[in-house]
Amino acid sequence: MNKLIDKYGRQITYLRLAVTDRCNLRCKYCMPAEGIKIVPRKELLSYKEIYRITRALTELGVNKIRLTGGEPFVRKDFMQLLEMLSYNDLLKKINITTNGALVKHNIPKLEELNINTINLSIDSLKPERFFEITRRNNFHDVFDTLNLLEKSKINLKLNIVVQPGVNTDEIGDFVALSQERNLSVRFIEEMPFNGTGQRTIDEVWNYNRILEEIRKSHPEFEILDHEKSSTSKNFKLPDSTGNFGIIPAYTRTICHDCNRVRITATGMIKNCLFDDGVFNLKEVLNKDISNEDLKDLFLEIIPQKPKNGFVAEENRRKNPNVSESMSTIGG
Ligand code: SF4
To answer: Fewer C-beta neighbours within 10 Å, C or N terminus of the chain?
Structure first.
């Protein structure tokens, strides 16, 4: 089997694929209140195209996929896509990132489809602050989803974007959740992918600052072994059921063993979160490219992955400033 290995010796085994740029929430760190200019439906990858792309990549050693958005569950028949992908025997793990507002009634079927992990985006445990951040009133649907997923056989991770001046006072509360609950708390550094660009932040809440804050409320915890290519540095409270971790997504100290390639909802390949797209697959899919040619294309493009996110940002050409909404990338 040919493999996707870049010039730094990193093997690409993990596909993060966005199924839509649409979302039912309006999180302040992701998009403006009026939302973003969404693409015409015909420009989105079809489920058949997503299946073909995934199959070709799995024949090149990719064994894990994360489906993201926008919000994947707003796309019609998303559950059917999951069913299609579950027939790909080369896929070892199917994971989903969701805001959880449209999930709870799908959980039995998600278990049946052996979805491995669901990352639930929830930035506050307070309904009024949840509304302040998301500009939507879905707190109770999301919290119901949290409770139901925790009881399910699906691994549950909570994604919390740490927003200076907004939710930093809840860091200790989220860590405390991992004491009794069967879940993994993941704090993510805020990034400028918010549809308008870098917001003026008085205090920088990076990995070290978040860890410092955790120590204030939870001075005792153990450092867990770092899994190869994991995006988060993980920890565990004494005798706890769950664990917590920090993803240094903006300080980019995790690039040395990055195993990820992204494909946006419109088919743009991103070799790094911080690049501005390297090749649009729609162009060749529309011309009925063969599976072998599609694999050759991946073998040509993906090994050109930049050394790290800083180099990727420097090399941006189409849109020099990192400002596009995360809803157009998929996270
Ligand atoms: S910034 Fe780019 S290279 Fe670094 S971990 Fe993220 S995707 Fe990988």
So the answer is: N
DSSP β-ladder status, 222-223 and 184-189:
unpaired
Tokens coding 76: 């019609």
pLDDT tens track for 117-160: 999 999 999 999 999 999 999 999 999 999 999 999 999 999 99
Upper half-sphere CA count for residue 11 (Cβ side, 13 Å): 12
* CA end-to-end span of the chain: 29
Cβ–Cβ < 8 Å for 168, 162: yes
Q: What is the mean pLDDT of residues 43-60?
A: 97
C-alpha dist (Å) from residue 247 to 9, 63, 205, 235: 23, 22, 12, 12
CB burial of 175-207 (b: ≥16 within 10 Å; e: otherwise) equals bbbbeebebbbbbbbbbbbbbeeeeeeeeebbb
pLDDT at 321: 82
C-alpha 90 to ligand 1 mean position (Å): 24
CA 37 to ligand 1 center in whole angstroms: 26
Q: Give yes or no for residue 274 CB within 6 A of ligand 1.
A: yes
- Dihedral over alpha carbons 220, 225, 226, 228 (to 10 degrees): -170
**Residue 285 confidence class, pLDDT cut points 50, 70, 90:** very high
Q: How confident is the model at residue 162 (pLDDT cuts 50, 70, 90)?
A: very high
Q: Tell whether the model's pLDDT for residue 198 goes beyond 60.
A: no
- Please tell me whether residue 155 adopts helix, strand or coil conformation: strand
Q: Hey, which of 273, 310, 314 would you mutate to test ligand 1's pocket, going by the most ligand atoms within 8 Å of its Cβ?
A: 273
> Which atom of ligand 1 lies nearest, measured to the CA of 305?
3
- Ligand 1 centre to CA of 287 (Å) is 31
Using 50, 70 and 90 to split pLDDT, how confident is the model at 76?
very high
